[in-house]
Write a structure and sequence with these properties.
The protein is mainly beta. The chain has two domains: 2-109, Sandwich (Immunoglobulin-like), CATH 2.60.40; 116-293, Immunoglobulin-like. The protein contains four helices and 23 strands. It is elongated.
Length: 372
């Protein structure tokens, strides 16, 4: 083990980290290649350790048995947990949350593949602000294989999402997101499991939104505000109004969108109080879908977990905690709705099991976040 250096607590505190009990003095573990079913030798492992006095970055390399070991430089911070990661084939893999300091930690790594046939869309949502003339898309992808999807580096490599027709500008806070012609590219590797993508684009000047889906989706929702925005030429089902805090949205939905399919609707005319309506101007710094009516980003992310295919609504009260607990409750509602749709014969057994397994995995993750 060697000490790499120290880092700013402010920077490290923003990272998604793993935790460990406060009485630990040594942390042991191994790196396992899940794809090939073997331990990995010579893999760099890094531990970011927080204590009350400092932040230390420690490094080790797995031995002939795929094992690593860290002598902790002090009592871990109770407020900021640790981050433990391994780099394999140019991809960073993090360990699961550590709850027992006496148990060895295993970091799973995977072989890579460049075929995006392993990528599925679990949910796809459009948050449409007719006043600011902006639309935010939130997608959850799932890698169904035992290999990390990774196409290489540079421009034009990664998950591909068609831009709305007639749109060329995009804003995203996710590193690696860029455009390649009419395609938005997320260049992050996608390990087995789930990954979220969010980005914002202007609404075309004529108000017509045409969104093609490369990967298809079990469903796609559009949440439109203000609710009095006139919508025509709509290819989606109008489910009426849903409440988010003290704001209302008009919800449109389409289900079972095949690969290469599309949804469309048109916002007709200007919206009251919108001097920029139909101007075509795009300013992502303005208040738009990420902060509608003072509702924080967490509320919009929670839209992912609204019940698919139901006219019922999930209400989030103004000022309420929008963390994992609310998202977990909404996920449980969505699972129940999925069960109801199976009983009525609306979806097949295979589709039910596939989507239910993905939702249950999200519930487990959020349960750990609320109890860990």
């Amino acid at each position: 083990m060697r000490r790499v250096g120290s880092m700013s607590p402010v920077v490290i505190g923003l990272l998604f980290c793993t935790g460990i009990g406060a009485d630990a003095a040594t942390l042991n573990g191994r790196v396992r290649n899940v794809t090939l079913g073997r331990v990995e030798v010579g893999v760099p492992v890094q531990l970011v350790h927080h204590s009350a006095q400092s932040v230390e970055v420690l490094a080790d390399t797995t031995n002939a048995e795929g094992r690593f070991s860290f002598e902790l430089p002090g009592e871990p911070s109770a407020e900021v947990p640790m981050m433990l990661s391994a780099e394999y084939d140019d991809v960073q893999y993090r360990s699961n949350r550590v709850t027992d300091s006496n148990a060895p930690v295993e970091i799973a790594v995977y072989e890579s593949a460049g075929d995006d046939a392993v990528i599925e869309v679990i949910s796809h949502h459009l948050i449409v602000d007719a006043q600011s003339r902006q639309m935010t898309q939130i997608l959850i992808f799932q890698n169904t294989s035992d290999r990390t999807f990774k196409t290489g580096t540079g421009h034009g490599h990664g998950i591909e999402v068609p831009m709305p027709e007639g749109v060329s500008e995009v804003s995203s806070e996710i590193p690696g997101v860029h455009t390649h012609g009419p395609i938005l590219v997320d260049s992050r590797p996608v390990p087995p499991g789930r990954m979220q993508l969010a980005f914002t684009t202007p609404i075309p000047g004529d108000g017509r939104v045409i969104q093609r889906l490369k990967y298809g989706a079990p469903s796609i929702d559009a949440f439109i505000t203000p609710v009095d925005a006139e919508v025509t030429d709509n290819s989606m089902q109008d489910l009426g109004l849903v409440n988010i805090g003290e704001r209302q949205f008009r919800r449109l939905v389409a289900e079972q969108i095949s690969l290469g399919g599309q949804v469309s609707f048109k916002l007709t005319g200007s919206v009251a109080g919108s001097p920029r309506a139909l101007s075509g101007e795009f300013d992502p710094s303005r208040v738009g879908p990420w902060a509608l009516g003072g509702v924080a980003l967490g509320a919009l992310i929670a839209l992912i977990y609204l019940k698919t295919g139901s006219s019922k609504s999930l209400t989030i009260e103004e000022g309420e905690d929008l963390g994992p607990a609310i998202r977990r409750s909404a996920l449980i509602q969505q699972i129940a709705d999925l069960d109801d749709r199976l009983e009525t014969g609306y979806i097949s057994v295979n589709e039910h099991e596939r989507r239910r397994d993905a939702l249950k995995a999200e519930v487990v993750d959020l349960t750990k976040a609320t109890t860990g």
